[in-house]
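Suppose you are handed a protein chain with no further information: no name, no annotation, nothing but its sequence. What can you learn? This example shows the usual starting point.
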Amino acid sequence: MDYLKKTIFTTIWDYEQAGILDPTIDKYKLLLTNFFKSNAIQSSEKTIDHKNLEYQINKKIENQQYQFSDKTNQNLIDNDLILEVENLADSSKDITSLENNITNFKKFYSLKGSNKLLLGAGNFKSKTLFISEPPSYEEELQQKPYVEESNKLFEKIIESMGLIPLNQNNCNIFVIPATPFRLVKNTDNKISDLELMKPFLKKYIELISPKFLIFISKMPASILGLTDFLKYDSINGGFIGDYLGIPTVEIEGMKSMIKDPEKKRNTWNNLKLIIQLINKENEH
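A reasonable first move is to predict its three-dimensional structure. Written in structure tokens, the prediction is:
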């Protein structure tokens, strides 16, 4: 191979390695194949080397074609799954049918590690909806959004807002988990359970149609695809936003506040904003 062809080959190979040259496209494949063929004819003493290089290129092309095919098939499967959960969510006419559809959907990856799904708790006719963190092992077993120390802190927060917690008959809140199962890390490039949960979570909010929303931890906003939806209130020193036209605040997770009590201050600043709105609503 002369200097010019070495240069051409090196350039083509570098482009292919960088992903600029796509060997799965016919015109590029033909270019690479003809390059090796022409060079092999002119340098017969090195035919074996060129054939070996051509074999390596063809093998790489073949592997990339398989990878491309696998990726395309996986995308089609993912799209079908999203369409399936969207249809299930849209067909839900009330909380009972929605939760039945969530329970009967067996394609969540995290179901491998869950004992029983944790669904909504409290008064679904409430004006105030909390979206809590995914349940822990104990919370799944006891079928409660929070247990032990986390539950004590959660109840204090509810009472500080002038609301009635879950353990009382005249409870006036509703709590749903961001995901009804403990999350299991997905390592096989399948669609995330968070993406599959999004239509169900959105439908929950639409059906309950609350006056006020409280996201506990960043998980709910992450699932719903919300970014920069909270705006700083310079007068009251907290962050408030809205989702579907509903006044919304985000507070720290219970376990996070237990580990770092300083985070309670951020939570209280945000809660004060929603408490003011709740009090105004109660005045009418």
